[in-house]
Design brief:
The chain is of the alpha/beta class. It has 19 helices and 17 strands.
Length: about 500
């Protein structure tokens, strides 16, 4: 059918064949070709145009599993629902699932045996009924067990994570080279953007390939102590990636799943010491300090059970951090900090120094902050980043002028003098994405070193929007005019 679901195994039967076999939408069939066999969920085609009677339409995932081609003869048979479907029903009814039941569900998620509807019910049940600590630990362990793992003969193995929602929060790309330059192992897997103008993997891709295999990742870490790879490419915690795709449209974040999602990725790289940042603000994933403190308690409790030392830091997430928003513009911020350029964003640098210091303290380093600053100022962090870029197949000598930003731009200037009281994260994200980020690497927003609480003169530049074509720039400007998001209060200025 030249269609991929990205997860679930799907086959299409003509309505005549489905009627003969008494099959309905979402029923399952076994499909056999020579020595290979798989089970698929079925959809039903009405009419003869797409799938005529006597033929079967197979989605890409099924074609690959069976190694079957157009014109081959295949056998089909009825298939029972997997046991995991009944465990999901138990969860909907409020029952606590056993370790082996959760493992069965995760195994079927990875193998594509569960439909999107069944996955949605599982997520919905975990959201409404909640998850016990035991269920969360079992889910974390099952995700790790049923995915690829990076096994390193090292101790300690350091890692970090941010719960997200703050534009420009590209701390990983400074913290990793600092920690690696200090002699510690830090194999970092990062995500691509889902709703933001750039994920860490999108920004790192400006410098080097990020879709590494487990073996490639292992080699990079062996050479450099660290790496910055795309988690989806490495296939670590594969079940979690599939759950996230279903959770995303309704922004469903069952607490147990949020905890296991983060910790499974850390356990998959054998991390022993993990720093977790929880930014709090109206547009971040965690909106209140109360919830952040509750998560902090749960992270520590589950981390202890997983033999993982965890430290939680709760940070303000009310405004963007750094100057660049979007892959190329964020990459420029990274280079400016590492090369100690005067154009570097000091707010992002301070946060990176704090986080790297916390990680080194966890690993037993005395005077950690002093060591971190020394590594940055001496150029050792930049040298290490170049090593990582080279080991991942990129150009280690890339200069700021070689990083191309969008050809078309518009600079938004303050319409009046006053105090900048709000730079809305939601607005910044929305405008940067409408401008083309992250798909267009050069698209995004450059904030002219302005922060909430700053005095702004009339006609002073606040931000520049970049796009790779005029139409996208026009769309971005329309959004800026409609929803605003930059608030300047002239009443706060005294004469």
């Amino acid at each position: 059918m030249a269609i991929a679901t990205g997860s679930t195994l799907v086959a299409i039967l003509n309505e005549e064949d489905a009627h003969k076999l008494d099959l309905h939408h979402e029923d399952r069939i076994k499909i056999k070709f020579k020595t290979k066999e798989t089970t698929s969920v079925i959809d039903i085609a009405q009419g003869k145009k797409s799938v005529p009677p006597g033929q079967i339409g197979l989605f890409e995932e099924v074609l690959q599993k069976l190694d079957v081609k157009q014109g081959n003869i295949i056998e089909i048979d009825l298939a029972e629902k997997p046991a995991s479907v009944y465990y999901i029903k138990d969860k909907i009814e409020g029952k606590h699932l056993k370790k082996e039941e959760i493992d069965s569900i995760v195994k079927d998620i990875v193998s594509g045996k569960l439909s999107a509807i069944e996955l949605t019910y599982f997520i919905g049940a975990c959201y409404t009924e909640g998850m016990s600590t035991e269920e969360t630990i079992a889910l974390t362990q099952a995700i790790v067990k049923n995915g690829a793992q990076l096994k390193l003969e090292k101790y300690p193995v350091l890692d970090k994570h941010s719960s997200g929602g703050v534009p420009g929060n590209r701390t990983t790309m400074i913290v990793v080279p600092i920690v690696a330059a200090a002699g510690f192992t830090i194999p970092k897997t990062s995500s691509r953007s889902i709703t933001s103008p750039a994920g860490t993997a999108d920004t790192m891709e400006v410098f080097a390939p990020v879709a590494l295999s487990v073996e490639q990742m292992k080699n990079v870490v062996k050479k450099t102590n660290g790496c910055i790879a795309w988690g989806g490419g490495v296939n670590l915690a594969a079940a979690d990636d599939k759950l996230i795709r279903v959770r995303h449209p309704l922004s469903l974040d069952p607490e147990g799943m949020l905890l296991s999602s983060i910790l499974a990725k850390k356990a998959a790289v054998n991390a022993t010491h993990v720093l977790i940042e929880i930014p709090v603000g109206k547009d971040t994933k965690i909106k209140t300090r109360k919830r952040a403190l509750k998560l902090k308690k749960e992270f520590k409790k589950i981390g202890k059970k997983l033999r993982m030392k965890i430290k939680i830091i709760i940070t303000p997430g009310t405004q963007p951090i750094g100057n660049g928003i979007g892959p190329a513009l964020e990459a420029l911020d990274i280079l400016y900090i590492l090369t100690r350029d005067k154009k570097r964003p000091i707010d992002l640098e301070k946060k990176c120094v704090y986080m790297a210091s916390q990680l080194l303290q966890m690993a037993g380093v005395r005077n950690a902050r002093k060591k971190v600053i020394q590594i940055l100022e001496s150029g050792l962090a930049y040298k290490k980043m170049k090593e990582i870029i080279k080991a991942q197949g990129g150009n280690p000598d890339i200069k700021p002028e070689q990083i191309h930003v969008g050809k078309y731009s518009y600079t938004f200037k303050s319409p009046k003098a006053g105090i900048l009281t709000d730079i809305d994260n939601f607005t910044i994200n929305k405008i940067a994405r409408i401008a083309g980020a992250p798909k267009d690497k050069g698209a995004g927003i450059y904030i002219h070193n302005k922060h909430e609480g700053d005095f702004i003169k009339k006609e002073e530049p606040i931000m520049t929007i970049y796009a790779e074509n005029q139409l996208k720039l026009r769309y971005a400007l329309n959004i800026l005019r409609k929803i605003g998001g930059i608030v300047i209060d002239h009443r706060l200025v005294t004469s």
